[in-house]
Amino acid sequence: MPGIDKLPIEETLEDSPQTRSLLGVFEEDAAAISSYINQLYQAMRRIYDAQNELSAATHLTSKLLKEYEKQRFPLGGDDEVMSSTLQQFAKVIDELSSCHAVLSTQLADAMMFPITQFKERDLKEILTLKEVFQIASNDHDTAINRYSRLSKRRENEKVKYEVTEDVYTSKKKQHQTMMHYFCALNTLQYKKKIAMLEPLLGYMQAQISFFKMGSENLPEQLEEFLTNIGTSVQNVRREMDSEVETMQQTIEDLEVASDPLYLPDPDTTKFPVHRNLTRKAGYLNSRNKTGLVSSSWDRQFYFTQGGNLMSQARGDVAGGLVMDIDNCSVMAVDCEDRRYCFQITSFDGKKSSILQAESKKDYEEWICTINNISKQIYLSENPEEIAARVNQSALEAVTPSPSFQQRHESMRPTIQSWPQTARTNSSGSLGSESAALSALSLDSLVAPDTPIQFDIISPVSEDQPGQAKASGQLGRRTNPFGESGGKKSETEDSILHQLFIVRFLGSMEVKSDESPDVVYETMRQILAARAIHNIFRMTESHLLVSCDCLKLIDPQTQVTRLRFPLPSVVLYATHQENKRLFGFVLRSSGERVESHTTSVCYIFESNNEGEKICDSVGLAKQIAFHAELDHRASEKQKEIDKVKEKQQKELSKQKQIEKDLEEQSRLIAASSRPSQSSGEGQFVVLSSSQSEDSDLGEDGKKKRESEA
């Protein structure tokens, strides 16, 4: 006999719309079988009732014929021939009545019993299982909806345990009911044949047995046909028994294997997350806005088809397109205090969708799968193998390797640092410095197990007027700096003012700030870590480049998030191939040890302005360098002028002393007094000279001695 269609019991746990659609076909078939069997049962019932009536009528006829001789007819009189004939008829009819009675018994056993059993037991069992399955399905939907509404901020362990136990019980009940329902529907495909063939076979065998009572010769073709039908019925029965045994074993195996999956959030250690998928299907909750501030969540079956995300509701024949996920972005979001929410945004940013997974495993697999599809890995011949290779490369990207130069053969960044001479272009010349650094190991550039900061620390408000400005020292993790409202901005007197739109990718501490490859290695590790952990969120800021510092400004509030003193920026670079990536190294004093300095590398993404930003930083450093040289020259000139002024004052003072001495000499020479008086004058002069010597101090005494 031809093959019989079966429902896949292995897919009952997934409960996809395709399985439900196939189940609907089997249910329609069961309804059609039930309608047809009811009609066939009514027809066979009429045959059985007719045979019973025929048997009773024959027996009554035989009885009446036997009682003919006892009848007293007024006009007939005694008719022995008639009586004898009727007795013979009565005997024959009585034998026929016995044959009909046997036929009625055979019809009841061979025809009516099988079809009655099929109608009353098997078909009613299908209807009962259908009702139980519908109730179990509704209970599971109610439980999973209640579980989805659990708050992740205000978790109540008792409520969570009750909801989880409810989900486990309802899902287990639905799965087991569905498997038994599928088994019954599959078995029905066999039983419907038996239910139609076996009664007909019993009817024909009863009729043949009835005819054999009157005739020993029956057509051989009829016997052969009936024999073949009987053999076929036995084969179908044996096949049915074997299939039922196989399905029962499958149900037992699936019950054991699927028991942990009844939990809404299975243990990821027993069921690891598959990050190399390029196809994914399952139920998700979709957020739909119903008003300005209100929204609703609908549970639908989602699946990927190539580069498209599709959804399908229960009862739908085919799925509908949700969005094109080629080159899309996917990120985890917090939405309405629900867990496991993520957002998918199309490549042009015009369409987005917020979805909620049922478990952490599904949540991570959906994000990884959409991320793999967005890279168009599914277009290759072996997408999962390529995805595994890409993820393995990403894992190796954050693992130090012995050779730094081999890992950077294909991509070399363009580096800018503060040179001793004037900077002419953004590329710069690495020269012998790069050749010497190419032999360094990775550990000499980046400290192993260095934590990566993927986001800027939340900005603070602007300082109030009169508040002291924060210091310019920056550690690895510091609060952003505000500005004083009562003071003039430090960048107002700056010659250079350039503003750029940048997005912060991450920062990490580095061990060296002399090698230009430090910035490139930091770019590689931060991008690899973002790819591994599926971090796609970036903070957008305005980068202000001036001759004093670099500032990150909030575009909304104009609050200064971070301030980098320009002298502390010792190294800066832009990627050679990806012009949007650039970074710089900031050297700052340690917080605990005064003599220890730390170097932190900051990586940003711009709108194809990486070289322009590095050129601007280089120009600012050149201007600051020349301004520093001019400042030093000015300070030196001021010192020289002070020395000259001091010398001029001393010279003027010395001339005044000489003039006073000449005046005293004239007074002494013009005096014509006696020797006594001259002695007294000498004494007076000497006294005045001594007083002058005391006024002149040591320098005056030395000069007078030299003059003498």
From TrEMBL:
Protein name as annotated: DCC-interacting protein 13-alpha
Primary localization class, coarse: other
Gene Ontology MF: a single term:
protein kinase B binding
Name the keywords, alphabetized.
Cell cycle, Cell projection, Coiled coil, Cytoplasm, Cytoplasmic vesicle, Endosome, Membrane, Nucleus, Phosphoprotein
Which segments constitute the PID domain? 500-630
Q: Which domain of life is it from?
A: Eukaryota
Q: Provide the topology term for how it sits in the membrane.
A: Peripheral membrane protein
| One GO process term, biological-process aspect | positive regulation of transport
Q: Which organism does this record belong to?
A: Chelydra serpentina (Snapping turtle)
* Ranges of compositional bias, category Polar residues: 413-425, 672-691
Question: Which portions of the chain have biased composition (kind: Basic and acidic residues)?
Answer: 635-665, 698-708
Region: Disordered, residue numbers: 397-430, 460-490, 635-708
Q: Name one GO cellular component term.
A: early endosome membrane
Specify the PH domain's residue ranges.
277-375
Localization in the cell? Cell projection, Ruffle; Cytoplasmic vesicle, Phagosome; Early endosome membrane; Nucleus
Pfam families, sorted? BAR_3 (PF16746), PH (PF00169), PID (PF00640)
**SUPFAM superfamilies, per the entry:** BAR/IMD domain-like, PH domain-like
Family annotation (InterPro entries): AH/BAR_dom_sf, BAR_dom, DP13A/B, DP13A_BAR, PH-like_dom_sf, PH_domain, PH_DP13A/B, PTB/PI_dom
